[in-house]
Amino acid sequence: MAHVISVQNVKGGCGKTTTAIHLAAALTDLGYAVALADGDPQKSALGWLERRPEHLATIEALDFTDLDLDELRALKKRKTLDYVVVDGRAAVRGAPLTDFIKVSDVILVPIVGLPLDIEASVEFLEKLWDYRKVEKGDAQVAVVLNKTRNTGKIAERVEALSETLDVEIAAYVPDKPGLQNPIEFGMTVFDQRRGSSQSIREPFIELAEYVVSITE
Ligand SMILES: Nc1ncnc2c1ncn2[C@@H]1O[C@H](COP(=O)(O)OP(=O)(O)OP(=O)(O)O)[C@@H](O)[C@H]1O
Ligand SMILES: [Mg+2]
Questions:
Q1: Which of 88, 127, 150, 167 has a 20 to 30 Å separation from 106 between CA atoms?
Q2: Which CATH number do you get for residue 133?
Q3: Does any ligand 1 atom lie closer than 6 A to the CB of residue 90?
């Protein structure tokens, strides 16, 4: 039985691909069988998997740019798979969003804590509650506060919003340019066991543990 974790936000550049790749890597690191599904026609997640060296921990590649709901339902029943992490497309709305919600157990919404990003993301979060599945709690929604800096005020504002909207903040991911270096080579900080990358791995371990805790 595989759980589907979709990383979605209508806002472009908020860190959907970064979150999806690192969540897939962190869940793999915890010992789960993981597939990374690309829902974005830009196919950045699939490109990353294509570059991934063969000797590293396997993350299965799935192309969800043309979502086939029957195929996905069959995939969810596969006993050898624990998680399907979906990298969502920018500007998702309408039918594609509805389809993704239909198949998702968890929807993670990365938000950059800047005023314009917050505004667009809050609208998106509110829209999610129009879906009965979300309203009933059959698909759980949580925020990933991304690119956090020393932005106490903004974090406070997002925290207040998360209370108002009753959405948990699953992880705080700092703005770390070092995250991107291994991506070029099909890797993440989970493939580099240097002590210095431990602090960069931490928020994604926290995110993976959150996902495991709500899907168990
Ligand atoms: N926590 C972070 N620290 C440093 N850089 C980051 C972080 N998160 C994202 N980035 C950078 O910000 C840019 C946008 O991130 P990413 O591609 O993950 O966003 P996206 O939501 O998938 O974008 P799109 O809407 O185009 O699909 C990228 O250059 C990425 O490397
Ligand atoms: Mg992307």
A1: 150
A2: 3.40.50.300
A3: yes
